[in-house]
Amino acid sequence: MNPLRVTIWNEFVHEQENREVARIYPQGLHGALAAALRPFPEFTVRTATLREPEHGLTDEVLNQTDVLTWWGHAAHERVRDDVVARVHQRVIDGMGLVVLHSGHESKIFKRLMGTSCHLCWREAGERERVWVVNPGHPIAQGLGHCIELENSEMYGEPFGIPTPEEQVFVSWFEGGEVFRGGNCWTRGCGRIFYFSPGHEAYPIYHHPDIQRVIANGVRWARPQGRPADVPRHVPVEQAPEKITARGPSVHDAAGRLASAKS
Length: 262
Fold this sequence. Notes:
By secondary structure, this protein is of the alpha/beta class. Helix content is 23%, strand content 27%. The protein is built from seven helices and nine strands. It has helices at 14-17, 19-24, 28-37, 59-63, 81-93, 107-113, 208-221; strands spanning 4-10, 43-49, 67-71, 96-100, 120-132, 146-156, 166-173, 178-187, 190-195. 38% of the residues are buried. The model has no long low-confidence stretch (mean pLDDT 94).
């Protein structure tokens, strides 16, 4: 089996502007995530960040990516719309997307969801329990009943997302809120997994069970097949069964409206 090609995208802003975040993630959040995935022989891992040309997400890079992970927070609006459109098309064509933490407000996630993706939040360093509500799901493989995080940012309901096709995790916070923090969808041929834990001010991505979830999410989101070959004109002589054409055609072979005839 060919290696699963993973591109880890991180805006890489907080780590360069905040000393505490830089202390926790000296190689950036993308560096921590890459370090967690590289030991698996089934993955080949590359990283990309906001300040690279085309945000590091050129056609060449995306065409060599099976699953893209996305972390953003402070610079959602600085992501170029043409790059978002490029990523969107790749997801529709079958590339997997794993959206992390504040990536819920990213242009690409909102475009794929078609909703506000807004939520409630609080920064108080409170305890979070990430409950496994679908233990038979591949993304929950190898986990216990829950993941307990000593310090986390509260994300709470209501969460402005479309109803998940599959719900894997629900979080509870010390202040009493709950949150649908592990959700799956398909768009076109692509699989999408959103996973909420990952506030930059806490060492959440160093937690082995969080790393396990992300690795499982990447495996689950891998391409499942090829995109449908459409739109495509099928001439009469290429129909699976023999037919006789009846009546005039208003389109040419390219699908354009044919010129009116007198």
